[in-house]
Amino acid sequence: MEDYNISRGKHFYTIGLSYKKADAEIRGHFSLDDQAKKNLLEQARDEGIDELIVTSTCNRTEIYGFAQHPFQLIKLLCEHTHGTVEEFEKVAYVYKNKEAISHMFRVGTGLDSQILGDFEIISQLKAAFLMSREAGVANPFFERLINSVIQASKRIKNETDISSGATSVSFASVQYILNNFENPAEKNILLFGTGKIGRNTCENLVKHTGNSHITLINRTKGKAEKIAGKFQLTVKDYADLQAEIRQADILIVATGAQNPTITKDLIYNKKDLLILDLSIPKNVESEVNELPGVEVIHLDHLSQMTDQTLERRKASVPQAQAIIKEMEADFNSWLETRKFAPTIKALKKKLREMKDAEVDFQRRKIDGFNDRQAEILGDRIIQKIMNQFANHLKGDSNNTDESLELIQRVFQLEELAKK
């Protein structure tokens, strides 16, 4: 994309890995918490990469950015995670330029999600853009692209049935409880972790189970109290975790830590216990599966579950794809204008210089010369000329380069267009 006058980087890339080829363990090796994302963005800026967005969710980790070569972005990812380049190459994907743009549209609209129609991803993309802007590595290209994906997501949600049923990990976990317990409203449920997935799960639990026996625990107690106050739920200290697990019928883990937070020695239950691990990397130690009466379900299993609305959501995919095609075409049309922006700017400067010279010449020749009227008239003529050129370039995408070259040659804009 070096002809689009966007970035010092030569091409726009998406590099990443997802649930499609990388299991939960490998995805965990490449997961990034907020601090790691900030560190990565700061290093990218220091290394001269001026446009970058980083996302890390339960089912994918991706970097979108401009670079001379994709390895610049792969190197950044591996330096800020536990993953290696060798691991990455086995399960990764790399998209370039228009393909990278198309990929963001698919991801942001839920068509590439582990659960078809998952609309939580769009808020994660928004947050990623804001983080990049704060770090000084987001530009008008990214702002325009993110906004286009947001608009596509809104239209798909409003105009199709793709968001019906279980369209998020948080809802799928609640659906699993509803399908596997006769009286979920009477079960003791412990929710450990009140980040975004934890909050969404809590809301779905209250809404769909009618359960008032839900206890929240978070390392930062204030965050749990804020959510509990909204639904009149119980909050316990982190120190009470082991005791609360003993009382629980269902433990939902959504802590998002980089290492297991639920270990075998925490569990001494005298009754059956279902554990739903909604975290990447896994936050429940694998040895917990060995305990009698304990069943551990990870989000990858939840995501494979089907529900009665899945076929209806699948039927909406062509309609969603048509919306994406339309929105993507609009974005690419805008992108084409970036190609000729320097030439249009240089042409406008050249015409103004010609106008100013002519006005100055006529001022000296004509008695009672009206500067204000001359300025208004000159500026209106320049604007009409500019509109004609801009419309021609927009409508002649097949020969844009030839048209730009002709305009630059006729008006001697070669040097001005480079500035």
CATH superfamily membership of the largest domain: Glutamyl-tRNA reductase, N-terminal domain
Work out the strand percent.
5-15%
Q: What's the N-to-C terminus distance?
A: 18 Å
- What's the number of helices? 17
Main β-sheet: number of strands, strand sense, barrel status? 6 strands, parallel
Q: How many domain units?
A: 3
The count of β-strands is 10
Helix content: 40-55%
> Helix/strand-derived class?
alpha/beta
Estimated radius of gyration: 28 Å
Global geometry: elongated
The CATH class designation of the largest domain is Alpha Beta
Mean pLDDT reading? 89
**If classified by CATH, what would the architecture of the largest domain be?**
2-Layer Sandwich
**SSE series:** EHHEEHHEHHHHEHEHEHEEEHHHHHH
CATH topology of the largest domain, anyone? Beta Polymerase, domain 2
Strand order of the largest sheet: 7-6-5-8-9-10
- Poorly predicted runs of 5 or more residues: none
Primary descriptors:
Rossmann fold, alpha/beta, 419 residues, 6-stranded parallel beta sheet, Beta Polymerase, domain 2
Task: Produce the secondary structure layout.
Blueprint (H helix, E strand, L loop, with lengths): L10 E8 L5 H6 L4 H13 L5 E5 L3 E8 L3 H9 L5 H7 L1 E4 L1 H11 L11 H16 L4 H20 L9 H12 L8 E4 L3 H14 L4 E4 L3 H11 L2 E2 L5 H7 L2 E4 L19 E5 L16 E5 H6 L5 H6 L1 H49 L5 H25 L4 H11 L3 H5 L1
Parallel strand pairs: 5-6, 5-8, 6-7, 8-9, 9-10
Antiparallel strand pairs: 1-3, 1-4, 2-3
Helix pairs in contact: 5-7, 5-14, 6-7, 7-14, 8-9, 14-15, 14-16
